[in-house]
Amino acid sequence: MLIQENVALAPRTTLQVGGPARYFIEASDAGDVRAGIEFARANNVPLFVLGGGSNIVVSDRGWPGVVLKVGILGINHRHGHGTAYFEVGAGEDWDGFVAATVIHNCAGIECLSGIPGSVGGTPVQNVGAYGQEVSETVDSLAAIDVATGQEVEFDRDDCGFGYRTSVFNTSARGKYVILRVTYALRHNGPPSLAYADIKKYFANRGQPPTLAGVREAVRQIRASKSMLLTPGDEDCRSAGSFFKNPVLSAAQSDELKQRAAVRNLEVPSYPALEAQAKVSAAWLVEHSGFSKGYPRGRVGLSRKHALAIVNRGGATAGDVVALKDEIQRRVEEEWGILLEPEPVMVGF
């Protein structure tokens, strides 16, 4: 196990901001994970587990302890009664894994194509997009208990999945390091067409969509919004969607509609969001004075997606947080709703 000191973290994130890690360890197996945890404990410094770096904002001070980069690889699968089980190392590239499931004609995560990051981060955030969430397919996972160093197994029900949440980023935050995840997918199952953008993509194509076709459609849709990592596209220098779609009570929903009516606006209706009592965060942002491409010095909003805060070049984490705060404040003033950030804030 190699222990590096004062390692830059910005190049290891998609947003490309933030200071260094005091110590940096890359773990290729469970033994390395245990050794990294023990090193942090012996030196009395905090531990942060880094995956693909796609959904985090690192503070300008960096991280004062150990950053443990989980690089455990491997994809194994087995079939049984129409279900295909894929056991995947936490360090595997997520989109590469999705591609492998489509090649094996297994349905369940095809709409999560193109999402950057590693497999181990997907159950932590309950990653979701275009009508699918990983909570629908996670069968179990293995993790190291930070306090004891023991390997423990979690069934799906143990994970406490909610909208962009699990026990791993709420009640058990920092208590476990995920080693591998097992997903249960539908062999020869049909692709998901729940989301309006996907339905629109296939509306006039004449042939029923395949899993491979839906994967390609999602990647093209994401690319059109700069939500697919594309070399040379400045709008990709982001942490993805910065705000969660708010979940509203009936009273909050009524109040939002009343506020919109006063301004001769209508809150858009999306079946996929309405099913979970959610409202579009992008609509709230855009109708609070922040259009796509909104500039704020070295940061701004993506020219293609109102929820992505973009590093235009040379930005600091302070610049990002200042724009985040401005958007949150204005949306709350205009609509009475406090937007919740989606990325993990590291070192703040």
What report would you give on this structure?
The protein has 348 residues and is α+β, with helices and mostly antiparallel strands. It has three domains: 3-70, Uridine Diphospho-n-acetylenolpyruvylglucosamine Reductase, domain 2, CATH 3.30.43.10; 75-224, Uridine Diphospho-n-acetylenolpyruvylglucosamine Reductase, domain 3 (2-Layer Sandwich); 234-346, Uridine Diphospho-n-acetylenolpyruvylglucosamine Reductase, domain 1 (Alpha-Beta Complex). It has helices at 30-42, 94-103, 121-125, 196-202, 211-224, 250-262, 271-274, 281-286, 317-335; strands at 3-8, 20-27, 47-50, 56-58, 63-70, 75-80, 83-89, 106-107, 128-129, 132-133, 138-145, 151-155, 176-187, 295-296, 299-301, 309-311, 344-346. The strands form five sheets. Strands 6, 7, 8, 11, 12 and 13 form a six-stranded antiparallel β-sheet that branches. A hairpin with a 5-residue loop joins strand 11 and strand 12. Helix 4 (196-202) packs across helix 5. The chain starts with a strand and ends with a strand.
Bulk shape? globular
- What percent strand? 15-25%
Termini Cα gap: 28 Å
CATH architecture of the largest domain: 2-Layer Sandwich
Helicity range:
25-40%
Question: Uncertain segments of ≥5 residues (pLDDT<50)?
Answer: none
Please identify the top-level CATH class of the largest domain. Alpha Beta
Rounded mean pLDDT is 93
Number of helices: 9
